[in-house]
């Protein structure tokens, strides 16, 4: 009997050891070949860089810094050549833009990439293969090891994004940096920063100071469910100075994350109108920064003065964000005020437009031409398709996939961000068990089930799908902790759809890998939702 119990215990131990999948990387790499043995990081070695690209050296230094912070192992980073023992970062111009090869043996670690991006993604994979301690800055006695293997990896899509709405609720620079840090762990490369809303304008524009003194503050906010119509009678505000924006942009670039700013127009502009009512259809109206959630009927009027102001604003925005895309919103612009406006109706006649929808196209078209003339590209929600667009404009499909399909057929690049799969403000479990959210039903399994290769598209059209993005709208999400709760673990599903090769979907296997990944999220102190991870 005793020996039976003993062998039962041994079996349990070995099952536990076995179930600790040491090759668990999220998003799953293109190819991973396990090998035997482990590499142990020790102080008597070095990190050698064999590369012309300085970004590769920067990434090598990140490894050194992390080994020092987490394991108290100090390794020099130096230029040199390949040897039989050590850690090597090697520039390989044959590899793709974000691709990498990571080769781990008992004697050495070799990371090959064409540039810093590839090296950075190799580093993220390496960290995930190490004890989760690597994600903390607490020195420990845990031995820093990594299992031997060969990884050959490259992203499926070039655009892998997350959007955070800083308009409904303001998030500090520190939290924005943390959000970017967490994105980078999962090889997400685009942070879409939603900076203006009916309920608050969040970016300093030097030429229009009232945008920060007036438009960034609402007199009160809704509390509880929308239907209750309750307000907290407490002013709420916040904005990012241009210096802070520059700081965040520089920070993100070190993590190989591009930031796309969004400046909403012609809808979602009530906060702007509170400061500059002359840009509305009713300049005598006393506009206020919105206090109710939802879509405001107070929209920009397509007057010359409006275009001048919006172009001035975009000029300052384009100088702050070096990325090629500027998001101009374009969604949810109610046409009521344009229907009732003598100016708008005369303009429709003068321009021989059919209706207010064509007037919206005219508005977007002028902004598109302006952005294009400055050497940048316009990005907008799928409503921007309602009229013709310049060929380089990109469309973000949020009302399901239909807008994205239409845009791809018109030869526009598309980011797939369908609300029914990627709206992180939707409930991820039974609302009765969850903090108040906007509605919807988006468990991890549903998010994971999205396949961007849509049957409606030919092979050539499908090439216009440049990637995927999930969006965190924040009407009901007022704290960093809640923002993380809604983002994770669903961002892991997004990351896998954006990065990993197209494979048959297997949610059971995916959720199993996410469960095994919990020590990493714990080490990163992510406030994830665990309802789908039990
Ligand atoms: C959106 O959700 N209005 C883009």
Distance between the ends: 33 Å
The CATH homologous superfamily of the largest domain corresponds to Glycosidases
Low-confidence stretches: 1-21
The biggest beta sheet is recorded as: 8 strands, parallel, barrel
* Secondary-structure-derived class: alpha/beta
Q: Report the radius of gyration as a whole number of Å.
A: 25 Å
CATH architecture of the largest domain: Alpha-Beta Barrel
In CATH, what is the class of the largest domain? Answer: Alpha Beta
Give the overall shape. elongated
| Percent in strands | 15-25%
Strand order of the largest sheet: 8-9-16-17-18-19-20-21
Please, how many domains? Answer: 2
CATH fold description of the largest domain: TIM Barrel
Mean pLDDT score, rounded? 94
Proportion of helical residues: 25-40%
Total E-strand runs: 21
Multimeric state: single chain
What hetero molecules are in the model?
A: acetamide
Number of helices: 19
Overview of this protein structure:
The chain folds into two domains: 2-153, Chitobiase, domain 2 (2-Layer Sandwich), CATH 3.30.379; 161-533, TIM Barrel (Alpha-Beta Barrel), CATH 3.20.20. The protein is α/β, with parallel strands linked by helices and 534 residues long. α2 runs parallel beside α3 (116-129), α4 (173-185) packs parallel to α6 and α8 crosses α11. Helix content is 36%, strand content 19%. It contains 19 helices and 21 strands. The strands form five sheets. Strands 8-9-16-17-18-19-20-21 form an eight-stranded parallel barrel, surrounded by six helices. Strands 1-7-5-6-4-2-3 form a seven-stranded mixed beta sheet, covered by helices on one side. Strands 10-11 form a two-stranded antiparallel sheet. A hairpin with a 3-residue loop joins β5 and β6 (108-113). The site of acetamide (ACM) has 4 residues, from loops.
